[in-house]
Amino acid sequence: MAQQQEEDGTVYTLEEALTSLGFGKFQYMAMCYAGLGFIAEAAETQILSFIGPALRSQWELSPSQESLMTTVVFVGMLIGGIFWGFISDTYGRRKGLLSVAIVTALSAALSAFAPNYSSLLALRTMVGFGIGGRAVYGSWFFEFVPSQNRGVWTIINTGFWTIGTILESLLALMLMPRIGWRWLLALSSIPSFAALLLFVFTVESPRYLCAVGRTRDACDILNKIAVVNKTQLPPGKLVSSQLTEELLSPGKNKISSGFSSLLVLLSPTLRRNTLLVWAVFTGNSFSYYGLILLTSLFSSGRCQHSSIALQTNDDQSLYINVLITSLAEIPGVILSAMLVEKAGRKLTMALMYALYFLFLLPLLAPQLPALTTALLFGARTFIMGSFVIAGVYSREIYPTSVRSTGCGVASAVGRIAGMVSPIVAVQLVRGCHQMAAILLFEGVLLLSAISVLLFPVETKGRELVDHVSS
């Protein structure tokens, strides 16, 4: 938006301010801090697939008890995704960041000292509740990035998740055979503690401050960013880009609180976008977590008469295979970052779905182990690509007043699919029904692709809004 002229002189909008400040040292530091949230979630999500067998042996757990440890984490994430979104949109991004870091760090560390199954179950539920706030980290960083390269840097920030999965696989490979699961739990809590310790260096999102009418405070933050980046703000006074008579009417410029935010997401203005975003997140979560479990089940060779198995049967091989497939996410993140600003959000997501579909399709028939690994590698690449672009789109489609809530609820809806997916995958693959499993995942992805094509707008280069228009 071009600079406006008012009676009191030259003014500039937040978008113009961020463009002038550029993507510099401040944004790099903010990205690394937000990345700790993604690393923590990846580590705490993946850890139970590594310690499950050890706990089953040590505490004589039944298969259902072992599965329940994973389920409670997803239940916690589901509740946390909604709760932390409300907190962040109502009380500010920084208070959301601090609360998430405290809950996650303490519950993750205490898990290492759990004396029995019941206490571990309770603590892992709290860990899930804490890491459900990943959307707060993402929204906080997102609101510091200029619009012209918003998609690229948001995707790169999401790539910290992949770093977390790789580090957790390496940590499990080094620690589990030597000093056991308690040390793995303890050391996996380091990213959460790092986020807690480094919180003192964070600042509030200027976009949030503008949305609640605190433009003077927002300007102070922007001045600090200008000093760090060694750039300058535009001349004049900061104003909201939506400083219109309509938005200044009573109640229009206030942040929604509590469950009213959820009602806003389902208001006539946002309902279609919200339902489609939920459909995409459901499909992505179902496919992503199902693919991880398919990899571990295939690699364990549980279905001995199926040539789809990767023909390995020890824990070390499981860690290595998970590590290899985690590395597949790196090209997915890179490819998405390369395409998202050129091809746009919708087209890039649709392309990722098509490639995922093609890589998974040959697994309908028995394949050689090496080819199976390669196909799973490719599928993991493209499902990760669609996942990170969906994260960009969901943040761009929602206004600041409900952005964290919108992303948090979408993530929570995806957690439901994440809970269902392992149950389905385990039953089908252990029953040697790999063809049915692959068909199921292909069908879910097809529905997600249709949802993407039904999105009403392309958000590439689109200016962010602060409030829901009437």
What does this structure look like?
- With 470 residues, the protein is mainly alpha-helical.
- 70% of the residues lie in helices and 2% in strands.
- It has 20 helices and three strands.
- Strands 1-2-3 form a three-stranded mixed β-sheet.
- The protein is globular.
- The two termini are 21 Å apart.
- Strand tally: 3
Structure annotation, total helices: 20
Shape label: globular
Radius of gyration: 22 Å
Work out the helicity level.
over 70%
Q: Return residue spans where pLDDT drops below 50 for at least 5 consecutive residues.
A: 1-7, 243-256, 304-313
Specify the biggest β-sheet: 3 strands, mixed
Strand order of the largest sheet: 1-2-3
| Estimated structural class | mainly alpha
N- to C-terminal distance: 21 Å
Tell me the strand percentage band.
under 5%
Order of helices and strands: EEHHHHHHHHHHHHEHHHHHHHH
What is the overall pLDDT average? Answer: 82
Features of the shown structure:
mainly alpha, globular, disordered N terminus, 70% helix, 2% strand, 470 residues
Blueprint (SSEs and pairs):
Blueprint: E1 4-6, E2 9-12, H1 14-21, H2 25-58, H3 63-91, H4 93-111, H5 117-131, H6 134-142, H7 150-158, H8 160-175, H9 181-188, H10 190-197, H11 206-211, H12 215-229, E3 237-238, H13 260-265, H14 271-300, H15 315-327, H16 329-339, H17 345-360, H18 369-397, H19 403-430, H20 434-453
Parallel strand pairs: 2-3
Antiparallel strand pairs: 1-2
Helix pairs in contact: 2-3, 2-6, 2-8, 2-9, 2-10, 3-4, 3-5, 3-19, 4-5, 4-6, 4-9, 4-10, 6-19, 7-16, 7-18, 8-9, 8-15, 14-15, 14-18, 14-19, 14-20, 15-18, 16-18, 17-18, 17-20, 18-19
